[in-house]
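Record type: ASSEMBLY
Status: queued
Input:
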Amino acid sequence: MFEYEIEPRFNDTDALGHISNTAFPVWFEQARMPIFRLFHPSLDVESWPLILARVELDLKAQTYWGSPVTIRSGIGRVGTSSCEVIQEAWQNGREVARGRGVLIHFDYDSEQSIPIPDDVRARLAEHPVDSA
Amino acid sequence: MFEYEIEPRFNDTDALGHISNTAFPVWFEQARMPIFRLFHPSLDVESWPLILARVELDLKAQTYWGSPVTIRSGIGRVGTSSCEVIQEAWQNGREVARGRGVLIHFDYDSEQSIPIPDDVRARLAEHPVDSA
Amino acid sequence: MFEYEIEPRFNDTDALGHISNTAFPVWFEQARMPIFRLFHPSLDVESWPLILARVELDLKAQTYWGSPVTIRSGIGRVGTSSCEVIQEAWQNGREVARGRGVLIHFDYDSEQSIPIPDDVRARLAEHPVDSA
Amino acid sequence: MFEYEIEPRFNDTDALGHISNTAFPVWFEQARMPIFRLFHPSLDVESWPLILARVELDLKAQTYWGSPVTIRSGIGRVGTSSCEVIQEAWQNGREVARGRGVLIHFDYDSEQSIPIPDDVRARLAEHPVDSA
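Status: finished
Output:
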């Protein structure tokens, strides 16, 4: 699995005193960068070939500002033009959240999904995790 | 259903040129306020009795800065201490996203779920939607 | 002055319990839209002709989630290629923040400032405020 | 000077394609943590003794997602109850922004400023920078 360390920002907190639930989609997006790179090594936004179709997020424990969070990301099911990203967030040895995202290989000009090419498929296969 | 109008902020966009997927959890949270109020009329954060346990989000169409977004929110299944919130986001007559959140009636001091009282249950029953 | 009403979002709060100082630049940017439109009626980001060079922000009172905030914006000094935007934020009858931004009329391709044309200058002159 | 490395998040970008101006107050706040600690070693938000009264930000060059940003922070003028924080943001060897914040030593209960104690004053004096 890919590992990415997030430093929670004070701005990720909310008035309830802890990290806002809304921080996780931001963190998980950032932690998907190595996966975006498997599709699109340049990460150039002008030719970005992916769209996020679905997000699932389970919030399992309170998360605190002041300690780093490790995000682990891997690839679940891969379909014709879609790919499942499974992510876990850990803080102080405890799993605080779990996410599942569905990415579509996508052509923004025609607004249509496009099949995942074999070379990308091979790279995705190197980072498997069990589907959530 | 409760309706809440969101004015997308320029800051809700990202380098792909449109509204970021990460804006929806922020908007949906804000649009849940009338539902939070059914549980906790004062909305005082010191005695906040709810925790978000799960989020599901389907992104159905690109969303643009510059046009308002209407969020419709209603109550799906209600369990002993949990409650499902079903939300839709519409822009320019098109459904752009759909969300499902699971709220837990929660005591932050003991870190335990607590049953939803009957009066709250009665108020929730006035805003039903089909579960997603 | 231009008036823009902001609905503070729960996500604009932080762990100190009130609106984060970081929300004001976001709100002020959104409230500058009528001013951006004086320069660039389409608001098309592909041909955006402005860059923000400087921000000053005075935080005058605590700001709360749950009440709308009115942002008033007007034009201060106008130079050859720059323009000062003066902004005030009011909540519950109290001025909670004051901002001053310096916008540069800018060509992103050549990365150079460009003089403000006379027609824009005339439109800016219709929205004067005293410079901060 | 204190150094803090920020990893720009994709969510820090906006539709203009680069890092939003609104990211800098967020980054600078996070990078002030070692300074907050000089006042308040526990960083406990319940007894937080500081309020931000003023922010100045000069945006000097475009900032990009994909490369780390180093924030350098030091102490400028120190008054009876206020303290100036001078901050610089560097990316790829270039200064991209400069900030100046004014912190007030503050009692949130009485909503009044309080003099900076001598021990804090001594610790602040160990991190001087020229005032902006």
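Annotation: Strands of chain C lie at 2-6, 50-59, 69-78, 82-91, 94-107, 112-113.
Annotation: Chain C has one domain: 2-126.
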